[in-house]
Amino acid sequence: MKESLTSSTLFNTIAMARHESVFLILVTEGPDDSVAIREHVGAEVQLISGVGGRLGVLEAAERAEKARLRSIFFVIDADYDRFMDEHVSYPQGVIATKFHDLFMDIVLESQPLLERILEVHLRSATRSPKSRVVPPRELIEAAMRLATTLGTLRVVNEKEGFGLRLRNFPLGELSLRDELRSQMAELAIRRTPESVVQVDQLVGLMGAHQLPRSLDSNHLVGDHDFFGALAVAANKLVKIAVSGDTLFNGLLLSLRCDAFVSLAQSGTAVEELMTRNILACPCAA
Ligand SMILES: [Zn+2]
To answer: Do residues 122 and 219 both lie within one domain?
Structure first.
């Protein structure tokens, strides 16, 4: 009920904007997406921040299609849709990300950006004679190992309907040196006392999980998990206390026009937005 109330508020906002404006309308999934792109949208684009999350935006897109509202686009996170149905289709005007979400589209296709952010945080460690010098690449790889394993657990949990509590998963409790799957399965089950699945069974399902043919393991990684995992890697491998939120804010702050331009032929949602002249990059921002 709440879902449809918010999506109908969103739909009304869109319909009113369509009525009053000649501009092209872009609806984002949430405020972070809007902050990332708002200075780069073309002069004839009206930006609307979605409410009601991903489902709210998708419902509003469906209603806009039925109402035949024109020149409205919705940029949404692909999430795990293609893992549930490889050939998933969306309502008209929906631009789904290539990877899990908009920020993973940017991070995975524009890696120098992330390495620069990490270098800033690594400065203090490189000044200390006792610390080990770890190249940013190594931290990114460790974070990807953690986040892809967690992504696999999320997909298996959703497919099998286990109902395991995986929100804000405490990745910091895991040892990066030991096998991740069993540690993660054990922790997930411990956090969900009512669960009936056994650790061995869960580990087996994670190990046997097959990626759909068109996807690779990078598609398993969501931004929240990734930045959390990157913070854990920085804490454990370089002894730097930094949070996932701080690293994510670093991305938002350093995300400039050149990063968007570098995604021009990346097959990402950013490319699609540029092709449709919704993003005006290279622009004056
Ligand atoms: Zn730009």
So the answer is: yes
